[in-house]
Amino acid sequence: MFAVIETGGKQYKVEQNDVIFVEKLDAEDGATVEFDVVAVSTDDGIKAGTPYVDGAKVTATVLKTGKAKKIYVSTYKPKKGEKRKLGHRQPYTKVEIKAINA
Predict the structure, then answer these.
(1) Which residues pair with 19 in a beta bridge?
(2) Domain boundaries, position 61
(3) What is the spatial distance between Cα 7 and Cα 10, in angstroms, rounded to a whole number?
């Protein structure tokens, strides 16, 4: 059994006990969060929602919140004396899928 959830403007295919990294959520470590289900696979087949499946929820536990490794971006314009180096660390939330309620 799997479900497709939507969070942070992205969709993730998840199963029970999966650990995924999603866009940063406003939740404490150890908190329980629920995600809306876009599609769910059961023994009867696949149900797709418009936009979400009615009565279906995915429950997850927040394991930790952090930042990814730093990436560097540089710009350079020749003969102009213009160059710039920027760094970025994307924040994330690590969650473990506990239950799929369809």
Answers:
(1) 96
(2) 3-101
(3) 6
Q: Provide CB contacts within 8 A for 79, sequence distance 6+.
A: none
CA distances from 11 to 5, 69, 93 (A): 6, 22, 15
Selection from 57, 65, 67 nearest residue 97 by Cα? 57
CB-based contact 65:30 (threshold 8 Å): no
Q: Which two tokens stand for residue 25?
A: 């959520």
Q: How many domains does the chain have?
A: 1
Cβ atoms of residues 26 and 8 within 8 Å: no
The pTM of the whole model exceeds 0.85: no
pLDDT in tens, 50-81: 889 998 999 999 999 999 999 999 999 999 99
Q: How far is the C-alpha of 15 from the C-alpha of 74, rounded, in Å?
A: 39
